[in-house]
Automatic annotation (TrEMBL):
GO terms for cellular component: membrane protein complex. InterPro entries: AAA+_ATPase, ABC_transporter-like_ATP-bd, ABC_transporter-like_CS, MacB-like_ATP-bd, P-loop_NTPase. This is ABC transport system, ATP-binding protein. Gene3D superfamilies: P-loop containing nucleotide triphosphate hydrolases.
Length: 223
């Protein structure tokens, strides 16, 4: 088991209102497993993913990563865990604008103190078809190319778990399909676990299992 979450709760305050986004969401993921989390817009998919990668805190519930209870990890501990074991791909790429493709890809390796960061990042860029673009900055890359860099960066520390939040969501259909093919190929080749968040059932079907996020809980079934 890579990941096991039980009864996660999360609320936000918006002005005078409190909105209860997650009301006891549970999921588990074995290594090499691929899980799609589908749900309507606003159902809390991104919130769930942000919690799993430690960008957001939880209000209640437990999260175990492998055999570690990471529920109460500090920001610093989560950053270290992310750098060593979790890769994240976002809809909006989230590349660092003043770093070129190579430097973006190297980041997790550098945080982890890898002495071969540069070589490894170059070979990753090659595997996503961007060797010739290594020295280009994000504003010199197309949307699809940016997402390829983001995928290379997410894979760079050979994480056990990839979290992807609508990775093809801001790309045209053809580019989106090629990005999803790349992601699924790499995840399979590298024996990684994947949690794919999407509102598209078609995409979800490419994962071994699907859970629907609705009314703050995760259930098996259809959207
Ligand atoms: P999804 O990704 O499924 O579209 P989100 O997780 O982005 O949904 O959002 C779920 C709900 O939580 C929405 O109502 C959104 O407005 C709210 N929300 C998300 N993040 C915050 C935040 N940082 N502060 C306040 N409300 C938030
Ligand atoms: Mg979202």
């Amino acid at each position: 088991m890579i990941l096991n979450c039980q009864n996660i709760t999360k609320s936000f305050t918006q002005g005078p209102n409190q909105i209860d986004v997650l009301k006891g969401a549970s999921l588990s993921l074995d290594s090499k497993d691929t899980l799609a989390v589908v749900g309507k817009s606003g159902s809390g998919k991104s919130t769930l993913l942000s919690i799993l990668c430690g960008i957001e805190s939880v209000d209640g519930g437990q999260i175990h990563f492998e055999d570690r209870d990471i529920t109460k990890y500090s920001q610093q501990e989560m950053t270290a865990l992310r750098a060593s074991s979790i890769g994240v791909v976002f809809q909006q790429f989230h590349l660092i604008e003043h770093l070129n493709a190579l430097e973006n890809t190297m980041l997790p390796l550098e945080i982890a103190g890898d002495e071969n960061a540069r070589e490894k990042a170059l070979s990753l860029l090659e595997s996503v078809g961007l060797k010739e673009r290594a020295l280009h900055f994000p504003n010199q890359l197309s949307g699809g190319e940016k997402q390829r860099v983001a995928i290379a960066r997410a894979m760079s520390n050979r994480p056990k778990l990839i979290l992807a939040d609508e990775p093809s969501g801001s790309l045209d259909e053809e580019t989106g399909v090629s990005i999803m093919n790349l992601l699924f190929d790499l995840v399979e080749k590298e024996d990684m676990g994947l949690i794919l968040v999407t509102h598209e059932m078609q995409l979800a079907k490419r994962c071994k299992r699907t859970l629907v996020l609705s009314q703050g809980v995760l259930k098996e079934g259809n959207l």
